[in-house]
Specification:
136 residues, 5-stranded antiparallel β-sheet, two-stranded antiparallel ribbon, 5 helices
């Protein structure tokens, strides 16, 4: 059932919006859930993924931990350290992993990301201001 009259439920239009999205929109779409410890610490469920975050791959045949080496927005994938495959000519290439298949274990924090965490936590009402002062 359609809840919002402002959003189309058409498969055709939603696919066009997804695959034709600009870079900033893709960054937001490429969000990954936080681990239980981080979720409890910050009061936030998910964050857009970025380079140097530490992640755990929980789906697919590459289940392991690693550091994000590259966020490839054009292809909607991330490359994780140590996850490579060999091509027919012997060259190794990184395997693309969709951000929905990983859990963020450690965040690479900066001023902007702290602001995002504070804003998201304030909206949920789960974390107090005193607890969020420890984020910086």
């Amino acid at each position: 059932m359609k809840f919002s009259p402002n959003v189309s439920s058409s498969r055709r239009k939603s696919r066009k919006a997804h695959f034709g999205a600009h870079s900033e929109a893709r960054a937001k779409i490429m969000s990954a859930p936080l681990s239980k410890e981080l979720r409890q610490q910050y009061g936030v469920r998910s964050m857009p993924i970025r380079k140097d975050d530490e992640v755990v791959i929980v789906r697919g045949k590459h289940k392991t931990e690693g550091k994000v080496v590259c966020v490839y927005r054009r292809k909607y994938v991330i490359h994780v350290e140590g996850i490579n495959r060999e091509k027919a000519n012997g060259q190794t290439v990184p395997v693309g992993i969709h951000p929905s298949n990983v859990i963020i274990k450690r965040l690479k924090l900066n001023k902007d990301r702290n602001g995002i965490l504070k804003r998201k936590a304030a909206g949920s009402g789960k974390v107090t201001d005193a607890e969020m002062k420890n984020v910086d």
